[in-house]
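Troubleshooting log. The previous structure file for this entry was overwritten by mistake, so regenerating from the original sequence record. Sequence copied from the archived sheet and checked twice against the printout by T.R.
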Amino acid sequence: MKEAARIFKAHGGKVKARTIIGPASRAVYLEALKRGWIDTFVRAGCMIITPGCGPCLGAHSGILAPGETGLATTNRNFVGRMGSPDSKLYLSSPATAAASALEGKITDARRWL
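Regenerated output below.
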């Protein structure tokens, strides 16, 4: 979250793609609040969801529809992991996810670092 927040804040842009921030736990959420990262994400146009598992296991809050493409910072990837088995899911670093959200397409994060 630190790296993504740094990129959003440094470039002051708004996201051009649906961007969901899902803190892994209440402790992570509270730390992100304390450090100002949640404010940075909200100002960039991100959606903050309840801490815990959500789209990462295809349960709720942002699962992929048929034909939709997603980019996630989780550590697992298989067909239907985050919703429809007819969607595409790519894994990335937080920097790549943030840069891609700002560009509205999967992109190389190096120019944003």
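The helical segments are 2-11, 26-35, 37-44, 94-103. Archived copy saved in two places this time.
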